[in-house]
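cron nightly-structures :: item 1 of 1
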Amino acid sequence: ISLQELMQSKFGANRTAITEFILLGLVETPELWPVVFVVFLFAYLVTVGGNLSILAAILVEPKLHTPMYFFLGNLSVLDVGCITVTVPSMLARLLFHKHTVPYGACRTQLFFFHLLVGVDCFLLTAMAYDRFLAICRPLTYSTQMNQTVQKILVAVSWALAFTNALTHTVAIATLNFCGPNVINHFYCDLPQLFQLSCSSTQLNELLLFAVGFIMAGTPLALIISSYAHVAAAVLRIRSAEGRKKTFSTCGSHLTVVAIFYGSGIFNYMRLGSAKLSDKDKGVGVFNTVINPMLNPIIYSLRNPDVQGALWRVLKGRRSLA
């Protein structure tokens, strides 16, 4: 008998309003829990260390005090937040062999996860707009993307993401949960909670699609539009070296956008499926662990300025040690 079946038989008979959920985690085999714990602890430390190193490099290197790196620094903070919302609680459950999570804690995790992912979504759009202005409007770039504009874009991103996260958190509170209460995942999210609800989730799913179109569809359209103009401007550059140098500043951002939206669309556009499979856990790992871990690597891999700043930060630490 699997852990899921055992939990269902224990809690499934109780049809009263439930006060906690049971998160099965990534694997149901207890023998594999130590391996999962070590792998995800390592991934967490690498992600936090990598993103904070990028942030430190941006702060200490005057050459990186530009709008693009201002947004990248904010993105690094968000990546640390995204992985912190999900992984430490999963590690604690593995360490103490406790799979239950209170209903209130589940909703709190849901709120902060959608808040941070939402800000991420809008920041990627702001970064695309920044590249559009830098390449297509170079003469007015410094005035159109001044510090005030940068701060406004970040503040608006937080405000819109907060509204989105609060909307979903309040909407989930209108659903009844009377059992079963077993979530085949390692964190609380909307698709898994919809499947456990005793009441109709049709309005909630409609809300997710509608708000998702505004929150993800509109930014994606703006990103595509920005890069269409960028591509047209780059193609007008006569020298191949000039084209390569100009577009290289966009390559990292496009890679991050593709990974972010690809995994996000797969995760939330499958709500109609009868049963959420282990594939959804894989997508969850991609959203919460791999994306934040890859971002520092992607942005520093082909960027000599970031690499040089990171080296000076590390060298400075060594000299202090």
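cron nightly-structures :: done
The radius of gyration is 22 Å.
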